[in-house]
């Protein structure tokens, strides 16, 4: 299945219990080898947005959701398999 | 080609395997390819200026800045708003020239420095930094104000001809628009913009007129540095006038025009000094003319309780001082500064859109090489001439547009400030604290007056 | 030459480091902006991180990011220019040569087919104008 960047960015993220986590601000990717790029996580929420507009060195520790935590993608939401309180801050 | 190989060599030498094609974008000097390919046609960069060529180029650079200062600081908007301010408030609004000069110089220098340091155009950087959606806001604000400013400048040219020939300006509107289009289409821009700015210097007649009308210099000096409210007018009108004056001094098109011009002339690090000095010299020049306009109007129009309802009203002070000759010179000057500003506004509009979308841009290549660049200003001229031909009161529209320009300014200044403080783009050339402080004060002033302007526009209905 | 830091790109933020950058072809000519990215999500194993397979560019790709109104507007402009079958341009990730302050492609501009609009403007509108 093909997804586009803009289909993911801006979507609301909810946790396992349907509690809102925030909107997707950016996609984190890694390059396991020289050529391929894989999306490994999502930057979510207001802190991520402020840091994006502001500066890196503000270091606001935005919410980072690993791709493995994504349970389900539908047209409106991205549902996680974890609970909001267990999420990592970057 | 060479750069690619060199990067490869460097990586190999450091034993680093770059992950995928990603290379650090932080240091803008890293890749010369980044610089050369950032202007429209890379071929022009092959001729490195040396010796006399470089001196000439620097002179040309200085001229660009000075002309941007004069032709930007003083245009149809400046002529009308300054004359009106003098007529309504005598010297009470002279102080606005000081933040006007400071703001213009600071932001002009900043936009010049950003494109020199990064080798990339302003809106290219703004979209890169803020994303397509967020940066659409400054682009939309700038484009709207650009079209309206173009209406103002076309009307300025047409009204100037009306002043000299007594034939209605509506006849001259399409001709004025056509003349500007031809200049841009035939790439005669540089020569004609310079000619326009040179002819525009006859507007200095207002400064001579101001001196000849014997103002109270002591009071003029005090008013420049001591903001004082108007005595006889409601605060609403006074604040609204502050808004439109600031918008007239710092019209958004100027910064985009100035920085893109610097990029087209492929300025480099050496030109930073030129950038700084020309931004300052040009602005002070423009400031003096503005003071002349305001003081002359204060001497002639204010005592008679006259308002500026037409360009002929704005010409009265000069006509009083010099008679028919003064009137003719004022008309010529207004025509020239409006023509210059009209060209710059149209270019600014097409530059910003092209840069946002990553299209080819530049006024040197022929229209068939950069079709969208030329199409965009054609569309702008059609829109602007259409609006002017509806017969909307050009003087009221001028004042309203200048107020809108002030409202739009924060939308262009804030992204510029963000980019100018980002080492990823400008490397070592980030804003100093002093520049950020002054820029912040100007921005705060603008936001305060812009926020105040919206309700005031409704209360006063744009009439002054 | 000096500042190549893969450690910085141990983690890439796609929006920050790739989307909205300017595209240059192999002759350093402009090809628009990176308007969107195509990610391939494995149907068999949705938990597997999606792979970046292509960049998307062109007015339609841009308009799509602005929603339905944007798309309709872009299609309207295409119709006005008489361009049939407009489509966003996809550039496979394998044809991306380098990403720095720009995104450099291993293709020529003609191969990417990004010039539909500007070519049409040149051929249909400007062809009859003197001095173009």
TrEMBL record, chain A:
InterPro entries: PRC-brl_dom. Pfam families: PRC. Residues 4-80 form the PRC-barrel domain. This is PRC-barrel domain-containing protein.
UniProtKB/TrEMBL annotation, chain C:
It comes from the Bacteria. This is Uncharacterized protein. The lineage of its organism: Bacteria, Bacillati, Actinomycetota, Actinomycetes, Micromonosporales.
